[in-house]
Design brief:
The chain is an alpha/beta fold. The chain has one domain (about 1-150): D-tyrosyl-tRNA(Tyr) deacylase (D-tyrosyl-trna(Tyr) Deacylase, Chain: A). It is about 25% helix and about 35% strand.
């Protein structure tokens, strides 16, 4: 599974003029399932996201994770948005290929599973809508943007 993690001051998802998901400070997580991914990759990805130390401690060092912000009484939300274009392969020319992205049924199942697991592990989880035409707005904090990949068994990460 692929993810692009952005530390944000705020982020939201709008569909047809209506906000369907929004957070204050926290992480915007753009996520893509690839062929061969299973719930195991989703679990590993979520564990890495929740423990990713990209928030400043009292000395200004990136030493805290989104869950530590939440536990400290500060807002540490997750906005999880499906984005199959993370699997783009541009090595063959100017038009991206998305052949490594999971088929829509598998992609939806793994996205829904990841969101369900996130809601069980974290106090504030907002989402977009799988396969919808979404407008994502964010104020990147830093900016801090981290690409992340958890490969299926037998593949290099």
């Amino acid at each position: 599974m692929l993810a692009l993690i952005q530390r944000v001051r705020r982020a939201s998802v709008t569909i047809d003029g209506a906000v369907v998901g929004a957070i204050g400070p926290g992480l915007l997580v753009l996520v893509c399932a690839e062929q061969g991914d299973t719930q195991l990759q989703a679990d590993k990805l979520l564990a890495k996201i929740l423990k990713l130390r990209i928030f400043s401690d009292t000395q200004g060092k990136m030493n805290r994770c989104v869950q530590e912000l939440d536990g400290a009484g500060q807002h540490g939300g997750l906005l999880v948005v499906s984005q199959f274009t993370l699997a783009a392969d541009t090595s063959g020319g100017n038009r991206p290929s998305f052949t490594q992205a999971a088929a829509p049924d598998l992609g939806r199942a793994l996205y829904d599973y990841l969101v369900q697991q996130a809601r069980g592990a974290h106090s504030e989880v907002a989402t977009g809508v799988f396969a919808a035409d979404m407008q994502v707005e964010l104020v990147n904090d830093g900016p801090v943007t981290i690409p992340m990949r958890v490969a299926p068994a037998g593949q290099a990460a």
